């Protein structure tokens, strides 16, 4: 402390003289230095913070309290520093998305102006920031029109970004984010597309709606019948056919302009019928529309004056032109014959120019031109379609009807004969049929169970005049277990079966030529049985103890369910050949190599393992046999405690040590001891059995010592004379050979016939306590366990010492049924406090069941 003070000095010499002086001492005030320990450096993650530094922990000043020290800081640019004025806790943050290092100097100044400074390094570590997609929003494109959109994204870390999408419509440029594609005419619709941008670690995405607008395309149309520049006659029905197509599958309508001022349509039908009046040249135009766009096609048609009739127009399937027919198969020859007659005079007209062709009656397509026949027809020489001496009859044919699909179904054969500008025409309907596919006998197949199976080539067994083998479609039915596959390109059939399956299945192979012919052939597939060897379950190495019975069950399986036999190669034991059980008591110590095998009579499986027999000093096996755990033992009545004990390693049992739970211990050499308990209570009885090697085994039970109930020496429903028969009319033992004795079957004695399942005894102050002048309510649940109904049953309650007796009304009880009866028993007012013996009885005069309880009368 600073200030001034006088100091007095006394001096004494050897003669006792004393001298005294006073000195003024002045202490000037000087400010103590502030002490600032090293403030630790700080590290935190980008966009995070740190608030772990309390400046009070790093400063000391003897004259200025921590709360009075002023703090300042310098040197920060991106780092943001905040000092709580109340706690002097520093919070460090940084500019958003910034990472790096800065050195910040903290200065402490005390109340007297002294300062101290310390530098702190603040390290803001970089944290990867997810890229951010610019909003894309809904997109719209148009079929068959180039589409372009630039997806943009940003990343504060300036990482390299990669773009991706989840659609098959386009592939976004992974580097630039540009979407550039041209939707096809099949792409119209609304699509949900997810666009994703990633920096390699984090990503951003947006699900956008891309709508591709449909662009309607114009339909196309072609007049398929008649052909351009066709010749027809007036006053005759002419069929016109057009083939329209719409690339968008829109519905089409047709409208015809026949060139003579008449029209037909609009109609959804592609065919029209027209009859011209007068000879003329016309242009026929058909216009087709999808409702918005149209297309058209035109032909020139030459209408001749009608002068000739075509008669006797027939088709034939033989070159003699004698067998008339209307149905023909592709690939077959086809013949027609007709007469041309002058309609005015009925004269047959030879030497006319004639055209004969046919076309599909539905489409007008598939035109087949018939050639003039040359040859002999029914003895007549035909030259260039007419007899050698022309007579107005004409012969035409097709050597083989084409095998094309257009030439299936109903056709129209058209004949036009003319001379100059006069002509005649006629039509004849015929049908061209598909030749059925021919399937030769596919051979049956046999292969062995669990084998690679079998295979064959279906092309070797099928033939179709119009359809190539590669275009035939094959299928099969009927198999359940057999696995079948058909290679769609080679038609190679592979057959196999599940593991361990054998049997016979019938499989039908069906060939379809695509033209309506489906032919099947049945193949029997036989999988022959092959014996499967049995399989032993793993046994592993075994260990047994000398002198201790050993048991092990060897198991095996056989998928064929054959009878199995077990065998071994050791003299240690003999495995049971039927069950596989190893059961014996080892007598010799050692390590043995044993092989066990199992056979089904054909094949076998085996395992070789180590069987070790060891000697082991084992403790006895011992336990208390009587009384049972939780048993009731009567006070003052001898009770026999019994035990079972053996020494599994062949030693001898030495002693039985009984701890009775009341402080007494009995050491015996035999298994039974007799014990009498004088005090009621619950006791834990402990048995320690020791063998001649000093090993000890312990077992315990709990017993409950209770007061022995009062039991009537002789009573109905008891075996009073000990002859094994239940006395029914001998309550006083006056007639040991009671004629009413019942010889009931085992476990069906009278005491088992009417079973008292439960008894509830309770009063006003407790379960088995009651006040004088109060009631004891007794509830008895009785069950009839006899094989017959029991009538006239009563439930009784007696307190002999108080002269109290109460009985229920009589009731019947069917076999197997239960009944609950309640009795309200009055306790006399003058009953002295104490415990009273009671008897609860269930009886019908022939059968009696009695039980005893104690009821306590309290003050």
Overview of the structural elements:
With 859 residues, the chain is mostly beta strands. It folds into eight domains: 35-123, Immunoglobulins (Immunoglobulin-like); 132-213, Sandwich (Immunoglobulin-like); 220-303, Immunoglobulin-like, CATH 2.60.40; 307-433, Macroglobulin (MG2) domain (Immunoglobulin-like, Sandwich); 438-528, Immunoglobulins (Immunoglobulin-like); 535-614, Immunoglobulin-like (Sandwich), CATH 2.60.40.10; 621-706, Immunoglobulins (Immunoglobulin-like, Sandwich); 750-857, Coagulation Factor XIII, Chain A, domain 1. Residues 740-752 have low confidence and may be disordered. The strands form 21 sheets. Strands 21, 23, 24, 26, 27, 29, 31, 32, 38 and 39 form a ten-stranded mixed sheet that branches. The chain is extended. 0% of the residues lie in helices and 52% in strands. A hairpin with a 5-residue loop joins strand 8 and strand 9 (89-94).
How many domain modules? 8
* Helix fraction by DSSP (H/I, runs of at least 4): under 10%
Give the CA-CA distance, first to last residue. 87 Å
| Major β-sheet profile | 10 strands, mixed
Low-confidence stretches: 740-752
Q: Beta-strand percentage? A: over 45%
Computed over alpha carbons, the radius of gyration is 60 Å
- Got a strand count? 73
* Overall pLDDT metric: 88
Using the 3D structure, state the CATH architecture of the largest domain: Sandwich
Shape field: extended
């Amino acid at each position: 402390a600073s200030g001034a003070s006088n100091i007095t000095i006394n001096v004494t010499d050897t003669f006792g003289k004393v001298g005294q002086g006073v000195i003024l001492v002045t202490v000037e005030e000087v400010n103590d230095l502030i002490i600032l320990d090293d403030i630790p450096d700080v590290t935190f993650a980008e966009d995070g913070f740190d608030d772990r530094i309390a400046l009070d922990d790093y400063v000391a000043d003897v004259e200025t309290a921590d709360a009075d020290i002023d703090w300042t800081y310098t040197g920060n640019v991106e780092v943001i520093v905040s000092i709580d004025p109340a706690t002097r806790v520093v919070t460090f943050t940084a500019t958003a998305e910034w990472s790096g290092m800065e050195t910040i100097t903290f200065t402490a100044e005390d109340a007297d102006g002294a300062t101290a400074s310390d530098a702190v390094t603040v390290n803001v570590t970089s944290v990867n920031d997810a890229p951010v997609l610019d909003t894309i929003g809904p997109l719209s494109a148009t079929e068959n029109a180039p589409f372009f959109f630039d997806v943009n994204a940003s990343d504060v870390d300036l990482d390299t970004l990669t773009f991706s999408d989840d659609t098959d419509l386009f592939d976004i440029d992974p580097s630039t984010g540009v979407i550039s594609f041209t939707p096809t005419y099949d792409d119209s619709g609304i699509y949900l597309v997810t666009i994703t941008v990633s920096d390699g670690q984090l990503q951003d995405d947006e699900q956008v709606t891309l709508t591709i607008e449909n662009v309607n395309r114009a339909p196309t149309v072609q007049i398929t019948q008649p052909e351009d520049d066709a010749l027809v006659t007036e006053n005759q029905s002419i069929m016109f056919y057009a083939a329209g197509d719409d690339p968008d599958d829109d519905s089409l309508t047709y409208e015809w302009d026949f060139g003579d001022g008449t029209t037909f349509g609009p109609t959804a039908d592609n065919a029209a019928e027209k009859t011209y009046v007068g000879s003329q040249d016309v242009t026929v135009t058909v216009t087709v529309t999808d409702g918005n766009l149209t297309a058209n096609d035109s032909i020139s048609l030459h209408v001749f004056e009608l002068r000739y009739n075509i008669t006797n127009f027939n088709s034939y399937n033989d070159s003699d032109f004698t067998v008339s027919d209307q149905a023909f198969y592709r690939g077959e020859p086809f013949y027609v014959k007709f007469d041309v007659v002058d309609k005015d005079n009925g004269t047959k007209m030879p030497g006319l120019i004639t055209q004969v062709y046919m076309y599909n009656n539905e489409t007008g397509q598939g035109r087949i031109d018939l050639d003039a026949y040359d040859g002999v027809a029914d003895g007549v020489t035909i030259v260039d379609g007419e007899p050698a001496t022309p007579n107005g009859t004409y012969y035409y044919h097709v050597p083989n009807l084409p095998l094309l699909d257009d030439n299936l179904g109903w056709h129209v054969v058209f004949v036009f004969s003319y001379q100059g500008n006069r002509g005649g025409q006629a039509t004849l309907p015929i049908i061209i049929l598909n030749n059925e596919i021919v399937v030769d006998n596919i051979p049956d197949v046999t292969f062995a169970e669990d084998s690679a199976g079998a295979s064959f080539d279906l092309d070797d067994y099928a033939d179709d005049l119009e359809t190539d083998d590669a275009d035939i479609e094959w299928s099969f039915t009927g198999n359940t277990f057999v696995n079948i596959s058909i290679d769609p390109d080679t038609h190679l059939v592979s057959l196999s079966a599940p593991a361990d399956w054998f049997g016979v299945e019938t499989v039908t192979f069906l060939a379809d030529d695509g033209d309506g012919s489906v032919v099947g052939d049945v193949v029997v597939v036989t999988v022959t049985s092959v014996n499967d060897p049995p399989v032993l379950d793993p046994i592993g190495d075994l260990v047994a103890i000398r002198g201790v019975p050993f048991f092990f069950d060897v198991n095996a399986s056989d998928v064929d369910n054959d009878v199995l036999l077990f065998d071994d190669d050791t003299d240690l034991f003999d495995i049971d050949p039927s069950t596989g059980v190893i059961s014996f008591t080892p007598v010799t110590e050692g390590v043995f190599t044993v092989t066990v095998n199992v056979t089904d009579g054909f094949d076998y499986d085996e395992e070789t393992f180590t069987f070790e027999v060891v000697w082991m000093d084992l403790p006895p096996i011992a336990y208390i046999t009587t009384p049972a755990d939780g048993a009731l033992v009567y006070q003052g009545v001898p009770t026999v405690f019994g035990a079972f004990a053996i020494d599994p390693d062949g030693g001898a049992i030495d002693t039985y040590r009984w701890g009775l739970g009341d402080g007494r211990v009995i050491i015996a050499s035999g298994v039974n001891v007799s014990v009498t308990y004088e005090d009621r209570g619950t006791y834990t009885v402990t048995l320690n059995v020791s063998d001649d090697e000093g090993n000890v085994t312990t077992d315990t039970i709990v017993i409950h010592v209770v007061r022995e109930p009062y039991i009537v020496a002789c009573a109905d429903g008891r075996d009073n004379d000990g002859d094994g028969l239940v006395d029914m009319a001998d309550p006083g033992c006056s007639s040991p050979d009671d004629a009413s004795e019942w010889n009931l079957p085992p476990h069906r004695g009278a005491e088992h016939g009417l079973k008292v399942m439960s008894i509830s005894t309770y009063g006003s102050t407790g379960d088995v306590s009651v006040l004088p002048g109060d009631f004891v309510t007794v509830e008895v649940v009785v069950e009839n366990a006899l094989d017959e109904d029991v009538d006239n049953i009563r439930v009784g309650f007696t307190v002999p010492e108080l002269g109290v007796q109460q009985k229920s009304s009589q009731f019947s009880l069917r076999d197997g049924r239960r009944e609950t009866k309640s009795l309200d028993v009055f306790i006399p007012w003058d009953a002295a406090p104490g415990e009273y013996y009671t008897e609860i009885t269930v009886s019908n005069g022939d059968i009696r069941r009695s039980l005893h309880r104690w009821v306590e009368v309290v003050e």
